[in-house]
Design goal:
By secondary structure, the protein is of the alpha+beta class. The chain contains two helices and two strands; from the N terminus they run ββαα. α1 packs across α2.
């Protein structure tokens, strides 16, 4: 079992101490950095001063990206299934002619 790593992440002017697996560190640090950048963008673009509102907007932005990826993937899967069914029907038609 690997050793746990203690790190501190700064998000919205607060420090969050975490105990994590070392393999998670890079992802968590990148995520915190992305949140900070997006929060700063929202504060500048919309003159929002309440950190809770800014963080809610960040959460909505990230969650909507995840949901949209899921929707896009399921649409792509449905299209692929329909193409495979059509190809299967074509192959079966050609095989039954002989």
């Amino acid at each position: 079992m690997s050793e746990k790593l203690k790190i501190k992440l700064s998000i919205a002017d607060r420090i969050y101490p975490l105990t994590i697996d070392p393999a998670q560190e890079e992802g968590l640090r990148k995520a915190a950095k992305n949140i900070e950048q997006l929060a700063k963008k929202f504060e500048q673009s919309y003159a929002v001063r309440d950190k809770q509102d800014v963080l809610a907007m960040c959460a909505l932005q990230f969650a909507s990206k995840i949901e949209q990826k899921g929707i896009d993937q399921s649409e792509g899967t449905s299209e692929s299934i329909e193409r495979l069914k059509a190809l299967d029907a074509l192959v079966n038609t050609k095989l039954s002619i002989k």
